[in-house]
UniProtKB/TrEMBL annotation:
This is Ribonuclease J. The keyword Phosphoprotein does not apply. The keyword NADP does not apply. It comes from Candidatus Paraluminiphilus aquimaris. SMART domains: Lactamase_B. InterPro entries: Metallo-B-lactamas (IPR001279), RibonucZ/Hydroxyglut_hydro (IPR036866), RMMBL (IPR011108), RNase_J_2 (IPR042173), RNase_J_b_CASP (IPR055132). Residues 1-198 form the Metallo-beta-lactamase domain. Keywords: Exonuclease, Hydrolase, Metal-binding, Nuclease, RNA-binding, Zinc. SUPFAM superfamilies: Metallo-hydrolase/oxidoreductase (SSF56281). It holds the Pfam family RMMBL.
Amino acid sequence: MNMNLFSHGDRYLMVDCGITFEQALADSQGRPAIQMPDPSFIAGQRESLDGLIITHAHEDHFGAVPYLWQELKCPVYATPFAAAVLRKKAAWRRAPPPEPLIEVLPGETHTIGSFRVTWLPITHSTPETCALLLETDDCRILHTADWKIDTRPVIGQGWSPSQWKAIGDKGIDAVICDSTNATKPGRSPTEGEVGDALVKLITSLKGRVVVACFASNVARVQSIFRAAHASDRRVGLMGRSLDIMVRSAKNAGVFEPKVPIIEAEHLGYLPEGEVLAVATGTQGEIGAALHRLMMDTHPHMSLGEGDTVIFSSKTIPGNEEAVARLIAGLEDRGVSVIHADKVSATLHASGHPCEDELADLYEVIKPQVCIPVHGEPRHMEANAKVAQRCGVPLTLTGRNGDLFYLSPAPGVRRRWATVGRLQVDEKAKKLERAPS
């Protein structure tokens, strides 16, 4: 649920505007509550807000835009893929798209208010993710967004230490850095490794095959299509969010499938050994495609003896019971289930940096200040310790609402801005203050 504000010379620049899903506040149908940051601090002075940058097309970074843009009324900047997804999401929610919505190519530099902004391509689990280099006359800030070091990406360019060193050689006053995997030693696997494992596994299977993955992981979907090509299978997409992501990626030119996409309603008529479906619902979400397949209520296909479901995903903490129920229900139908959490094969790779990847970044760019973000306090504290071991002179950690002074004298002013959460009331079609 990311929302960041950068300020220079009494002008503001917002980076990301996301939502989160609160399962503990689910409705009677089991749908989790949609929550987002309360933007009242900046909405009350929106004439000072020069723009909103979307770093990538994940719901926790852009999902609140259709709900909040009317309060912000500023230009929105996004790469072509993220812009395409944002337009589709806004249309689905019957909200007007941001105006203007300015498309920016990775590698470009634009002046937005007081900042000169360069979009730096970096690998993550959705296409065209970019870190941001934010420059003023006397300060250079690197905001990493979500990232990892991937030497074998399926989509996008691999990590180039020389390119990042060139950025660091000019001086980085502060880096605002993703902490999600900071507690994990080593490195995350590459998407190329996952693709190889999926091809090997799927070509060995008989019967229908369903691969469940996060909808936004277009690189994973590309690997599944590669496996379909290798095993002479046809691929259909099951799930609205998956369809939005894949078709947006195809239109933006970042997804090049090895075989054509067939309509999901045709899957049930194909010979069993020719079927390969990509499905949403890896976390046991009620009503998602995988849940409907488990309940045998999906309109396009049924699963049974001889069929296989592959979870090319991790189980997010807190979802263990829902995932276990989903797996048990599939197995009760005679379906074989292979979960990335339970096998030695590399069937999933995180999109976030582990300890060694964080260390590589700090040692290459040599920032003066590190501000860990995006994670629980233990993740941010672990990130700070990595930075300290790598020789970063100062690390600053904080909470929502804290003001970080980045230049000329770094520091923190606690609880500087009022913060909170808004929640979507679907029945009343409005936002309300989230329960505390």
